[in-house]
Amino acid sequence: MINDLWYKNAIIYSLDLETFMDGNGDGCGDFEGLTRRLDYLDSLGIDTIWLAPFQPSPNRDNGYDISDFYGVDPRHGSSGDFVEFMNQANKRGMGVIIDLVVNHTSDKHPWFQKARRKDPRYYDWYIWSKKRPSNWNKGMVFPGVQKSTWTLDPKAHEYFYHRFYDFQPDLNMQNPEVRAEVRRILGYWLELGIAGFRVDAVPFILEESPLTAGKGAPYLHFDYLTELRQFLQWRSRDAVLLGEANVLPKQNMKYFGDEGDGIHMMFNFYVNQHLFYALAAADVRPLQKALHATRDIPETAQWGQFLRNHDELDLGRLTEAQRQAVFAAFGPKPEMQLYDRGIRRRLASMLSDRRRIELAYSIMFSLPGAPVIRYGDEIGMGEDLSLPEREAVRTVMQWSAEPNAGFSSARKPTHAVISSGPYGCEHVNVDAQRRDPGSLLNWMVKMIRLRKECPEIGWGLCTIIQTQTRGVLVLHFKWRDGELVTAHNFASEPQEVRFRIPGADDTVLVDLLGVTDAQPRRQGTYSITLDEYGHRWYRLGHAGYGLQHSRGVPIDKRRGP
Ligand code: GLC
Questions:
Q1: pTM to 2 decimal places
Q2: Which residues of the chain have pLDDT under 70?
Q3: pLDDT recorded at residue 542
Q4: How does pLDDT run across 7-61, given as a tens digit for each residue?
Q5: What residues flank ligand 1, with Cβ below 6 Å?
Q6: Active site (annotated) includes residue 200
Q7: Could you tell me the CA-to-CA distances from 469 to 206, 372, 472, 496 in Å, in that order?
Q8: How remote is the CA of residue 416 from the centroid of ligand 1, in Å?
Q9: 259 noted as active-site residue
Q10: How far apart are CA 543 and CA 125, in angstroms?
Q11: CA distance 248 to 293
Q12: Which strand ranges, in their side-by-side order, compose the sheet holding 461-465?
């Protein structure tokens, strides 16, 4: 089972072809460029790449407006380049997850073009209303930018439904023909060897039609996730679905399915937001509650734990006071905020202090789940607030101090390059950090290696250890005969923390990152001092036993949970 459930401990790296590496010098990132950078990702320790949409698209929403689900946009190369890339990735043992964006299509998609002309084959693939529905200006995902969810189509002379921008008409997921087409899309990419899908906007895919929905929250067809999963598994037994759904913990469980027969993985948005609150307020209690509320998931399910992604840092699940605390700490200026709920900044510029950045990443790696790293965050890239909306955090990867950050040899790349200021490519780039043993990049390599040596995190039972110190989070993981303890100090002052590990008796806590082992005072009671923003990882055992534990047992000899 260890190998079958590979996603339990995967190290995922998310990138957008467009901004990662331009191989042919036309200014836009492509498969050729990404393929050349696979050794970089491999040596970083990445085993799974999540690619943002790269299919043909008018590209008005970063590729999330697809006009052909069965190909590669010529900006990024050809289908041949995709297959070459897959071959090279797989050769290095890396899996590739791609986005599945089927809540909507681009309005330029031939299906919509036919539907708006009332072609009987395609009309019902979308959601239409002859009259303007009374809730036409409710439920927008991008408040402040998006004005409505129903828009009059000048060709059809009817209103069409769109959860997102008005150039992204929603597909009618209750139509069996649409579902059959989604299966074809899944089947197509699985046949090309991908390891799974990051399912975009899952709640909206499951929602009942807005035409039949009553008042209150719309009914969600969770059985559709089981249907998708079954199809996926028939075609590729170890492929996974990784869902994007920023919902409350109770709802989350429904996505995984009572029997673990729903989606395999979900991003843990709930923990993410409470983690940022803990960073802002040096108070871990709400984070502890969030971890507790999302702890018990089916055995074959897993969380994707992340810090930042390609969108705004969404704080919509915090209380108003908590949200304001995070805004004040990390996005105080109006231009840093977006959609009344989030912050459009990168991690490094928000946290600004190297110790705090390490703290955040060390926590992310030690949260129950599979860590998801956003490209550029491993070197501490910043944002460009002069760009609109979420574009601020989508500038090109900074490879070197050369023109265009070494991303492209074109005179003017299609995407912005941060070339000045403290986060400019002159100061922040891969080339310089590779040569500097003390760089963030080299620290990250070390942490990824450590994470891989601690399979307890992905497989084991996580217990939140109670302490009297509200700025410190202590977690305990147990899987088979391996036990791990991590301690993180969110406060800007050093903290002494005392805690008990049940059943630890007189066991030493072996420091996995340094040489400060912790001896028990009384049976199973420890007292440690953490520096400001300090982090520690320990394995329970005799001195010298620490890392060998996971190394000693060949991966496929370890039995499943
Ligand atoms: C998801 C994506 C976001 C996109 C939206 C519409 O939320 O993360 O970037 O705009 O879906 O597809």
A1: 0.96
A2: 1, 542-561
A3: 52
A4: 999 999 999 999 999 999 999 999 999 999 999 999 999 999 999 999 999 999 9
A5: 61-62, 64, 101, 164, 200-201, 244, 310-311
A6: yes
A7: 42, 29, 6, 8
A8: 20
A9: no
A10: 63
A11: 9
A12: 461-465, 472-479, 482-489, 535-540, 509-511
